[in-house]
Amino acid sequence: MHSLLERIKAGTLWDFHGGIHPADNKLQSSQSPVVDAGLPPRLIIPLRQHAGPAGDLLVQVGDKVKKGQPLTRYAKGRVVPVHASTSGTITEIGNHTVAHPSGLGDLCVILTPDGEDEWGERNGKADYWNLERGELLERIQQAGVAGLGGAVFPTHSKLDGRGQLTEILIVNGLECEPYITTDDRLMQQYADEIMDGIRVLKHLLKPKLTLIGVEDNKPEAIEQLTRHATDEDVLVKTVPTKYPSGGAKQTIELLTGRQVPKGGRAVDIGIMVLNVATVFAIKRAIIDGEPLIERIVTLTGDSFKKPGNAWVRLGTPVRWLLQRFELQPEAEQRVIMGGPMMGFTLPHAMVPVVKATNCLLAPTQAELPAPGPEQPCIRCSACADACPATLLPQELYWYSRAKEYDKAEKLNLMDCIECGACAWVCPSEIPLVQYYKIAKDDIREARAEAEKAERAKQRFEAKQARFEREKAAREARHAEAAAQRRQTMTAAGGEDPVAAALARIKAKQDAPITAIAATAEGLPDNSAVIAAREARKREAEARRAAKLAESANSETAAAPQSAEAVDPASDPKKAAIAAALARAKAKKAAQAGESAEPMTAEAVAAPAVDADQQKAEVDPKKAAIAAAIARAKAKKAEANGEPVSAANGTAAEVNTQDDAPVDPKKAAIAAAIARAKAKKLAQQGDSAEGDLSANAGTSESAATQSDAPSAASEAVDPKKAAIAAAIARAKAKKLAQQGESAGAEDAKSEPAASAQTRDMTVAKSEVTTSQSDTAASEAVDPKKAAIAAAIARAKAKKLAQQSASTSAEVENAGAGVESAGTQVESAGTGGERAPAEPMQSDAASSEQPLAVTAVPEASNPVADAPVDPKKAAIAAAVARAKAKKLAAEAARAAETAAEDAPSADRTTTR
Q1: pLDDT over threshold 80, residue 178
Q2: What is the pairing mode between strands 308-313 and 294-300?
Q3: Can you spell out the DSSP letters for 67-90?
Q4: In 10 A of CB 570, how many CB atoms?
Q5: What is the pLDDT of residues 274-298, one digit of tens each?
Q6: Residue 344, H or E segment
Q7: E-strand spans in 75-191?
Q8: Cα distance between the two ends of the chain
Q9: Per-residue model confidence as pLDDT tens digits over 652-696
Q10: What is the 8-class DSSP label of residue 20?
Q11: I need a surface site. Which of 156, 238, 369, 385 has the fewest CB within 10 A?
């Protein structure tokens, strides 16, 4: 570095590759001094005028501000504030078009000046050498100083960091862009203040050498700077005019002969480069305490009547400046912000002046013709010869146009300084710089997205690592708690329950899985499962059958003892009941023929004895209802040619011995309950098929064990109950049609006999029959049916006697009988209404067609249920009519069986 400094002091100059020599056109504006542009009626101040984020707003609409007052807050990093260019009132805050090639808008503060131009607080430090480095940098930041050469990079950020390693400080006065003369006039008129700014920087950076570079086309500026540069370590260096010598890398190479490495900065090689206007702004910020609120702007071009340079307040609308300097526009007048090489055309004139605005060029069409249409590249390599960065512009053009940015980056696209030299020499008039700008913007955006994604990835990985740590800690806590629980449970029970449960689960998982076969259609074959289910059903049925057989055997074994306990001589009525049960069973066996199995005397006598023992506990009214149902079943079975169950005959015979008077009202209530139950069961029935003998067996159980209604209800099948209900309805309909005519005929044919005489006769005959049945226990004689006929004749006499006593009541209730018959008929046809209500007398109960499922329910007390007396009377009349008909049929049956009576008597005698 020492040798380099010696060579520089000796006056050595270097050169850079490429470059061009366009017409400079500087004399139009450089001959007149800088003037004050004045105060516009409205200022549009963008919040972001530098290369970095904008600061937070400090003002609101309606606030009054003074000149130099900060409008935004500065912060660490690349944030610099903006200030009020004059005193006035904030009238609006919103988006407005700003000075940018895109023509987009940004947040701006609209300031209306009050005309006083009153300064706010200014805190200058003429003795800056007493300030610390950090305080100096902070003052530069607070003043809003940014690079005024065009890059507008925050100056405090540029000076900080590695700025203290600066060995050579270069003040760039190489204003190479055509038409622009701001730096030239600044150096001519403010050379002394520029030197003050250099001294502040020397105090801040401590460089070994300071160089002021100026092109040889600015002799007045060179003279002024040389006169004021009295310091030994400050040299004014004059270089040949060549574009783009004003670029930072080109200036370094011209003055020092060193090149900035790829992707690096000048400070990396110990060199700091600052624009001359930036140095002037630093002097005002530190020594005068004035923020950056104005700058020199060149207004030039043949369309201006008075071109020149002026001090312009930041935020001044371009339209106002054009009018102020007497623009004479032509058709399709262009206004370029910047020079012809690196400037851009404004979208409209209501764009504000910002910190980067150094020139407003308004050329005529003849002065600066518009570029022609783009032509294909002819690969002439003129662009490569003119490139000051030693790049390959034609290759970069192909890759940028094809958006192959990776290949463009490999060719050092990001080192392009966008000087426009390549486009200026291109014979095909290809806007090469525009392609490079678009490609560089896309690459920067992609990099920003990649950095954002990387930061998100790092945050995600950090979060996942935190989750893993928390999970591990949680699992450790759970494991510790589980271990403690296992220890406690093991100590209490002697075995680890968790280990036992895991062992069971493992055993279940290791158990072989039975594969399910599939049918030809692809459906699962469940035949094995169905067969197993059927086998289980059969086993259950066998167990139930075995249980029933066991109970039957126990009852059969107990029957002889019960029979021996009955003394026929002590109670003739009970003996008659037992005999009647035996005869009923014998009659059923005779009708069944040879296929029926003979019944033993013990088995026949057992139910009779059981019924005799339970007689004292059974309510006569309930027994009458059950007997009536059983008789109806038996008669229906006889009419259909089916064997009559013993239960039906037994119930009928038992009922004949019950002379207890029955209350018609209670009987009607019981009948209503029976009808309701029958109707409910009929609705639940799915078909009309069933076994009537099963229903008869249920009736027999009800007659013999009336004190166990729950057992009877369990034996009832809903389908069979529905069948029984249907039969009862049909029977009621038939009896209703024949009841009235049969009543009169039966009253005349029956003899008048007393009830006591008939009871004695029946008792004697039943005792005799019971003895004969007991003797013939191994085989049943068909002639025993004659005995049943004798019993039937006795019952007929009794029914005739009761019918004679109630004939007058039947005649009075004729109309009621007719109405009841109609109701019964509708019930039989509808299938859902209950049969006619029966009476509980012996005469009515002999043919009452009630469903067998009503038997258990009828045995319950229903005295509290509401009953209509009129309906009960009608039902009683219907029942009496039925009784008359049955008496007539019984008489005819007795005459038919009279011929067999002598043989039956002989059998009894034997």
Answers
A1: yes
A2: antiparallel
A3: BT-BSB--BTTTB---B-SSSEEE
A4: 8
A5: 999 999 999 999 999 999 999 999 9
A6: strand 344-345
A7: 88-97, 105-113, 168-173
A8: 161
A9: 333 433 444 445 556 566 666 767 766 666 565 444 333 333 333
A10: B
A11: 369
